[in-house]
Amino acid sequence: MIISLPPALAKQLSDSRAEYAGPSSAVVPPHITLVSGRATDDWADAAAHVRKVAAAAEPFRISLRGTGTFEPVSPVVFLNVDGGAQDCARLHGELLQGPLEHLLEFDFHPHLTIAHDLDEAAMARAKAGMADFVADFEVTSIGLYDYLGGGWALREELALGGSGR
């Protein structure tokens, strides 16, 4: 489950990511992960749970402000989710109250990855180059993805309760 970005912001960040990581960065579009994992049992049950959580949630605002890093634990430079982090954490927790499993070895920390597993110079350029980045957008839906045919594919874009999207 992810939060997708408005198209213009997604394009801007895709271009920035390509500047640091090259064209291979386009394989995964910019997003904020809510749960990186899998259904613990039946896909239909997991999808129904995600739909229920989305329907009960209210739209909220995300504010991206500057960069952070998970180094030295993990070679990642990211944009900070300054505003909306608590909303993301709440959604993350509610999503995990059903038949979903979060498969990352680290605690959940809302962020938007800019650079990952690059050489030190590229990581430093990404961190410095995006340090003053600022963007705000409204989250009105979450994306339910499935791993199909060797890649992630959007199965459903689910409107947050009352957002009409």
TrEMBL record:
One Pfam match: 2_5_RNA_ligase2
Alphabetized GO MF terms: ligase activity
This protein's UniProt keywords: Ligase
Designated name of the protein: 2'-5' RNA ligase
Gene3D superfamilies, alphabetized: Cyclic phosphodiesterase
Origin superkingdom: Bacteria
